[in-house]
Q: What sequence folds into this?
């Protein structure tokens, strides 16, 4: 009886010893579905090995309750006086055998192969806890199985063998080494039984012996302030076969660390920026993420995985998009793709901000990803303090905004947003422009609001985006950029969606704030590192793993959004001057109605019952 690779190796050793058995039956778990929506069929490794060896396979029920009434396959369990040649052997089986099953075999004929030197590490995870505790010696025992009420892994010991734990050994390697040794001990015990020479001794009484409880996700959680790099590396070696080490980001999501190791020598420029535990930065020389841990130790991470995302090399993860509460935003242009983000930080629980370099004459677009599974979202884009557009983003898809519709005919034309030099003037008449919110010049804000989409219709209106015009030189905007509209180009017609808010406009779910400046200004401010020749005189800012990393580009997405990426869906700010809750069309809108414009690929879609229920609960 077994299920995993440990039991496979034990079976392999037993199968080779043809002198101790006349027939072998394999009992293991039944096949089961796993993955998203049960897309993958999981098969017990022991079942696969048994089939390859041509052995009879018997499957046990999936649930523990059904297993309690499961019957042993014939000829086992059919006689009140079972013959001594019938032996029950378990290895990493993971189920508690009922008294009826145990009593179906004779005395001393129920054996278990356990990978520790009992009484130490009784429980389901002895190998993992051996590594976690940093032992240099362990072993394997073949013991008698007892009823549950008499204790787990507490039976008499028929045979045991010690084993040295190699430095930096991985779980898989130690598991296989102990399984080989355990299989050999089992074969020796069976030979002794055939000759009537078996001996056993009770386990030593040791109340201080460590236990080996189940491995949980919390055990793989990293605390950089209390754990050294060696402790974290050890935890990874012990658990990553099924529990990858992970930590929290203050911006909301969690990240897993794959392929980690301790690092002794850290380059001086990197070391200067890692001033306290929990700070991390990407090291181009090693292509790894370097993190400062407790005790002035440093961890090296080769690969990183965010929740619900693909595993990425450290460099690609470091160049990821700004993220907060299951929403992502990034800004890209036509020539270079995603624009790097610098000095990313968490301003509060629902606001993240960063700096991006701007270049005059470049068109840009704002990308959104909605990682929620059932919430529609509206992304409101404010450029220099003015509303550019409002865009609907469906659950588990992405969308973008890059301009406004400037015609009111059925043939739509879109004017794309572009960066231009900021016009200054010494004309005293331009002092009136100071009334404009000057501090918003040079900012791109995206406000995410959860909505319930209720109706769509084709729209041929015209969106307005007011130009700022020249500003007085006293604003100190010399050398800065602003956003203006480029030449209008033909575009697909737009759909308008009437929607009810789950989040109110004055309290958006998440805010993303981009401060855009010319690159030379950001370099002068120390936000962007100088070119390598001058980098020794300045140091760029470090980033905490408790915050969003700086200098970030968009990462890959595992969202299946291809059908939605071929066309755009934007929203219309034309009616933004209307009081909250009013919509000129239709005459009687639902409460908290908002106008959003969608492109035609969404036209005709219907809402699910869950969204309708969500709207009803909000309106109440």
A:
């Amino acid at each position: 009886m077994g299920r995993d690779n440990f039991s496979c190796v034990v079976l392999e050793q037993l199968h080779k010893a043809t002198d101790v058995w006349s027939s072998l039956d394999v009992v293991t778990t039944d096949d089961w579905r796993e993955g998203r929506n049960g897309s993958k069929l999981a098969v017990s490794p022991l079942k696969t090995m048994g089939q390859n060896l041509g052995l009879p396979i018997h499957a046990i029920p999936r649930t523990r309750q059904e297993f309690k009434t499961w019957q042993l396959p014939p000829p086992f369990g059919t006689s009140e006086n079972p013959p001594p040649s019938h032996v029950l052997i378990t290895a990493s089986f993971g189920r508690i055998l009922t008294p009826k099953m145990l009593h179906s075999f004779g005395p001393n004929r129920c054996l278990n192969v356990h990978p520790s030197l009992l009484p130490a590490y009784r429980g389901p995870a002895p190998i993992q806890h051996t590594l976690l505790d940093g032992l240099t010696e362990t072993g394997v025992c073949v013991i008698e199985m007892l009823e549950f009420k008499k204790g787990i892994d507490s039976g008499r010991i028929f045979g045991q063998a010690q084993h040295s734990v190699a430095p930096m050994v991985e779980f898989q390697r130690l598991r296989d080494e102990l399984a080989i040794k355990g299989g050999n001990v089992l074969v020796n015990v069976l030979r002794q039984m055939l000759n009537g020479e078996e001996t056993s001794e009770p386990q030593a009484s040791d109340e201080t012996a460590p236990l080996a409880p189940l491995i949980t996700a919390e055990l793989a959680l990293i605390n950089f302030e209390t754990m050294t790099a060696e402790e974290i590396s050890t935890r990874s070696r012990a658990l990553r076969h099924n529990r990858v080490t992970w930590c929290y980001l203050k911006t909301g999501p969690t990240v897993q660390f794959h392929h980690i190791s301790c690092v002794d020598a850290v380059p001086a420029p990197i070391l200067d920026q890692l001033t306290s535990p929990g700070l991390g930065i990407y090291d181009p020389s090693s292509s790894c993420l370097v993190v400062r841990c407790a005790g002035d130790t440093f961890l090296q991470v080769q690969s990183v995985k965010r929740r619900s995302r693909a595993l990425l090399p450290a460099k690609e993860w470091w160049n990821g998009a700004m993220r907060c509460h299951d929403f992502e935003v990034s800004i890209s242009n036509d020539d270079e793709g995603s624009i790097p983000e610098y000095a990313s930080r968490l301003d509060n629980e629902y606001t993240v901000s960063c700096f991006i370099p701007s270049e005059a004459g470049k068109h840009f677009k704002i990308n959104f990803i909605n990682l929620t599974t059932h919430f529609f979202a509206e992304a409101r884009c404010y450029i220099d303090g003015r509303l550019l557009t409002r865009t609907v983003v469906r659950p588990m898809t992405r969308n973008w905004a890059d301009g406004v519709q400037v015609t009111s005919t059925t043939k739509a034309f879109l004017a794309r947003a572009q960066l231009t030099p900021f016009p200054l003037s010494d004309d005293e008449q331009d002092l009136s422009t100071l009334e404009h919110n000057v501090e918003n010049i040079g900012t791109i804000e995206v406000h995410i609001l959860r909505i319930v989409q209720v109706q769509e219709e084709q729209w041929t209106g015209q969106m307005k985006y007011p130009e700022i015009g020249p500003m007085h030189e006293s604003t100190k905007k010399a050398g800065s950029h602003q956003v203006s509209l480029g030449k209008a180009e033909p575009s697909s017609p737009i759909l308008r969606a009437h929607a009810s808010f789950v989040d109110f406009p004055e309290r958006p779910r998440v805010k993303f704030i981009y401060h855009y400046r010319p690159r030379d200004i950001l370099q002068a401010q120390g936000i962007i590192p100088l070119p390598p020749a001058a980098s020794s005189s300045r140091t760029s800012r470090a980033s905490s793993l408790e915050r969003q990393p700086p200098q970030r580009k968009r990462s890959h997405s595992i969202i299946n959004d291809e059908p939605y990426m071929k066309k755009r869906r934007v929203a219309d700010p034309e009616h933004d001057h209307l009081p909250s809750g009013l919509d000129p069309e239709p005459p009687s809108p639902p409460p908290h109605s908002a106008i959003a414009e969608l492109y035609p690929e969404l036209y005709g879609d219907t809402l699910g019952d869950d969204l309708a229920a969500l709207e009803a609960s909000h309106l109440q």
Remarks:
- Confidence is low (pLDDT under 50) at residues 408-413, 430-435, 534-620.
- Residues 217-317 form a domain with the Methionyl-tRNA Fmet Formyltransferase; Chain A, domain 2 fold (CATH 3.10.25.10).
